[in-house]
Write the structure tokens for this entry.
Amino acid sequence: MDRIYLDHASTTPVDRQVLDAMLPYFIEQFGNPSSALIEEGGMPNKAIDEARNKVAKLVNAEKEEIIFTGSATESNNLAIKGLALANKDKGKKILISDIEHYSVMNQADFLRKFGFEVDFIKVDNYGIVDLEDLKNKLTDNTILVSVMHANLEIGTIEPIEEIALFLMERGVLLHSDGTGTCGRIPVDVKNLGVDTMTISPHQFYGPKGVAALYMKRGTKLISFIQGGSQEMGYRAGTENVPGIVGFGEAARIAMEEMDERVEGLTRLSRRLWDGLASSIEYIHFTGHPTKRLPGHTSFWIEFVEGESLLLWLNLNGIASASGSACASNMMAVDETGLRASHVLTAVGVPPEICSGSISFSLGKDNKTEEVEHVLSVIPGIVKRLMGMSPLYEKARKSGISMGKEV
Amino acid sequence: MAKGPYSDKVMDHFMNPRNMGEIEDADGVGEVGNPACGDVMKLYLKIEGDKIVDAKFKTFGCGAAIASSSMTTELIKGKTIDEALRISNEAVTEALGGLPPAKQHCSVLAEEALKVALEDYKKKKEQG
């Protein structure tokens, strides 16, 4: 069997149709879109316009509300810093959920240096934002809240509509990182009520190195990249034309195939979830059981360390992801040498358990046979690693497991 | 064979750990680490005279932790206690063909497990 890729929450391969759409813009239509008055620049300029239209349609936005950027990280930075700086006369408090991507979380220190107060909103054990905590931390000084649409580590989808409604009544802006949802599930920015939302095509079979920020018409935002007047002045720099064209095409295909993709992924991940639950002892699933991304299954197994499980799966031709401190920070060393996943810590998983987490994120091309193969291989790997674990040995002798009775 | 950050030697010891298991009547046992930090190593020693005649391990941890435990048992078998005490974490790392910077602590843990097991042996011996 060929390799089985179950790490689509990390990134997806570029769809062949998307690549075909991009290719002419490397050599044949290479012109600078800013030179629109000459033929070489005219076509790329038109292509960007068409792509903007397709991306806008994907999230039910207006074409003029889409700003192309270089990555989801850049879009999150543009939104948070841009909204904060543009609205600082109204207040200087910003609230961020505890499970945001580092491209949102790590802006806190920067903002504090510029006089902003940043506080974090708790989530419950499923990873759903605690609305009571949000309400308690919201003050008259609060100008912006950032809550991601779905968490790619545990798969939970947040109640953005409810949060937006609450904030709208109080005149507080809402940014949502839609990296995990746009192109994967139907997203309607108008219904959601967000002011800005990050969209990233490499999560739905588009290219890397390009992304977008949806910005509701009339929103005040200050750009932090100065230069030319590209992207309505919000993101200077010559556009990544092939990337933007690919983004547009990926958005078009995602819309067209959305229902079919969601149905297939939901069915396959249900089989995976049920198969794991019935064959692996001491397994605990993470994230919300129903309000979750289709195709996403995440869990931890007592007495089994995540990186070792990930390595064995890899040796068996299966690509997955681990929230293991070891695996996720392989080349990085912080003051402790390791760092447990902040998402798992936020949902209340103790650090000794964080190290055993794994997530399988399926994609549109995964097959039933692949899921069955994973289910046939994983019990043996788990048995091997448990047999090697002194913690399992201790638990068997004492009758106490990692946090509960065996 | 190694395509990731680990050397072929590390992957070999991870996939085919040497001396994995327990010694029922071990003369010295050393357990170090904390699951909260990601790794727990338990080393069992069988000592005759002043020579380590057998060594086994059990490890909860990442690939580097398992490989470091396995390599340590290989390095100490047949050595005298004094020789074993001179085995540093650098020696374990070197024997493994290197470890990524974030994984150096795994070899340190292996060295600590060995020292704790030898201390346990000395204590048991003193107690008769």
